[in-house]
Write a structure and sequence with these properties.
Length: 68
């Protein structure tokens, strides 16, 4: 599946303001494509990982539970 959200559709992780390795996701794609595109915030032209909404929810829960 090819996913190409426009730049306005990408949302940065709340940790992006803290520097370091951050991700962006495109929430609008969930309703239109049924998947959650995820990419490295420092490589907007890089690869995009697509996961199911359920998998994305699990990734967010895991990140919130981690001692970062």
């Amino acid at each position: 599946m090819s996913v190409d959200p426009t730049p306005a559709q990408w949302v940065k992780s709340s940790y992006s303001q803290q520097g370091g390795n951050c991700v962006e996701w495109a929430p609008a794609a969930v309703s239109t494509l049924g998947v959650v595109p995820v990419r490295d915030s420092k490589r907007a032209d890089g690869p995009v990982l697509t996961v199911t909404p359920q998998a994305f929810t699990g990734l967010v829960a895991l990140a919130l539970a981690a001692d970062l």
